[in-house]
Amino acid sequence: MATEEQERGNPHLPPLFFKPDIMHATTTDPAPSEPAVSSPTVDTESNDFSTSKPLRTGHGIVIAIDTKKIQSIRGVQTVRADWTLPETSTLVEGLLAGVNKQGKADVILSDCTVQTYEEFVEDPVPTILHCKKLFEFARRHLLSGRTVGQPRGGVLLFKAFQHPRMFRFRMEYLKPNFGSVYFIQAQSSRLHEHEGYFLCQGWDLKKVLYS
């Protein structure tokens, strides 16, 4: 198993997307500083989205979820919602059900944090709770590698901190349920020196913790 130092900035990590196999992706950003959203709203002005059109290989659906209105992006279905709400999960399943019978995604990306690194060091609980909610979101919405016929299929990528408490979460929640888990930092990243991403591949739920 690679060490944290080997994983960080490793140029030989396996690719995130397996063209043309990745068909459906979901991105989330709860934007905690924004006012709460009571119910999810689908942006009907999003371009190039239709559950009735047959999809060509490699031309799937990207669903972007944010509590703020997202400017229309070609090929992306935007949803104004809090992804932690049950209603949002139901809506996501409905959108994906139009293109696969499981109503699940190949990739889930979360590019947000609820704390700064300094706040996390003082009190890690909010971030750990956020990560547990994200894990539950993945458990409900992520296709397994076996389902898509790819050993590394079923990908979760989310922002995290390089800290012993986060790596405990990695060992308790991520390692038992993904074929591979890496902590990565882009060399040109503007992130804090302790910020990076957990890249989790090969989703295959084996162990669920509710602590």
From TrEMBL:
One Gene Ontology cellular component annotation held by this UniProt entry: mitochondrion
Residues annotated as domain Ribosomal RNA methyltransferase FtsJ: 56-202
Annotated GO MF terms: rRNA (uridine-2'-O-)-methyltransferase activity
Lineage: Eukaryota, Fungi, Dikarya, Basidiomycota, Agaricomycotina
Region (Disordered): 1-53
Keywords associated with the record: Methyltransferase, rRNA processing, S-adenosyl-L-methionine, Transferase
Name of protein: rRNA methyltransferase 2, mitochondrial
Keyword tRNA processing (UniProt): no
Biased composition (Basic and acidic residues): 1-10
Residue spans of biased composition, Polar residues class: 25-53
InterPro entries xrefs: RNA_methyltr_RlmE, RNA_MeTrfase_FtsJ_dom, SAM-dependent_MTases_sf
Family: Belongs to the class I-like SAM-binding methyltransferase superfamily. RNA methyltransferase RlmE family.
